[in-house]
Fold:
Amino acid sequence: MSFLDIAKNRYTTKKYDPNKQIPEEKIQELKEIIRLSPSSINSQPWKFVFISDKKEKNKLAGVSYFNEHKVNDASCLVIFYAIDNLAKFEEQIAKYLPEAAVMYYNAKIKSLPEFEIKSWLQHQVYLSLGFFLGACSSMGIDSTPMEGIQKDEYDRIMHLDGYKTLFAVALGYRAEDDSNQPTMTAKSRLPIENVIQTI
Structure:
């Protein structure tokens, strides 16, 4: 299947089949794919937590607003975190990145106000989301990106020191009667002339 076909058929799943589980080898493949996500200067200011345990998912479902049933019924939940400790981030890039990348950060990013630096870090995590959703669809795995969660409660439950929850993604296989799938509800996007300009 071409990537264009994948884009046409991918959708945000609203209802999962709780009896269908993603095979472990596919989960491992997704872990490697998300590890390879792109980021500015290869900064990688993130952590990704994969949760398949039903009890743990249930705890998080309770603080996921209207996404509760998706979290409970999905095969796996992935939480996307941005690093929130700038000293820790600077130690990480000093250890793993080439000198030129560290010099760019020190010259262009480090002098910004703290909230702007953290915003820049969080933008890198959002880059990984698009990469991840495309990968899931290419593997026949359905997904639901979710910002509609209580992020502070996710942080409290998960205790991931130095990181902040940005969003989560439910993964699994759609229920047959999920009315949001393209075969039941046509995908709606703005006309190409509204969003693409060629010069």
